[in-house]
Amino acid sequence: MSKFNLNNKTFLLVDNSANGEVNSETVFKYTQENTLITADYSGGSISYGKIIGHLNGDTINMLYQCLTINNELKAGKAIAKLSIAANNKIHMKLDWEWLDSDHEKGTSEYIEY
Questions:
Q1: DSSP secondary-structure letter at 3?
Q2: 48 and 69 in contact (C-beta within 8 Å)?
Q3: Which of 40, 53, 68, 82 is the most buried (most CB within 10 A)?
Q4: DSSP letters for 11-79
Q5: Which range, of 49-58, 62-71, 97-106, averages the lowest pLDDT?
Q6: Which residues touch 33 (CB under 8 Å, ≥6 apart)?
Q7: Contact present, 34 and 4 (Cβ < 8 Å)
Q8: For 50-62, what is each residue's pLDDT tens digit?
Q9: Which backbone phi and psi does 26 adopt, to 5 degrees?
Q10: How far apart are CA 28 and CA 10, in angstroms?
Q11: Which residues pair with 82 in a beta bridge?
């Protein structure tokens, strides 16, 4: 069993690469059942997004997709590393990649709200 429990947790963006789509107005609401991780997200430039992932220790292997406010459908994959911040909140650092023809990569960081 993992020491991380993301069930009913909300996360906000701390930092994102310039080619990322989410911003400080995007809110992520996670659920967890054993090692299955899912999340819905919206706000800022995102009309609606969905994450599905598998938790293994301190790592989530995830796929994500979203519809932007400009009606663009986007999808990507990421590896998220989890840690506990000084304030005992879960910190998440992602190495991600868009799944479009350019396969742009980036990093982003989130903190439990």
A1: S
A2: no
A3: 53
A4: EEEEEE-TT----TT-EEEEEEETTEEEEEEEETTEEEEEEEEEEETTEEEEEEEEEETT--EEEEEEE
A5: 97-106
A6: 7
A7: no
A8: 999 999 999 999 9
A9: -85, 130
A10: 6
A11: 92
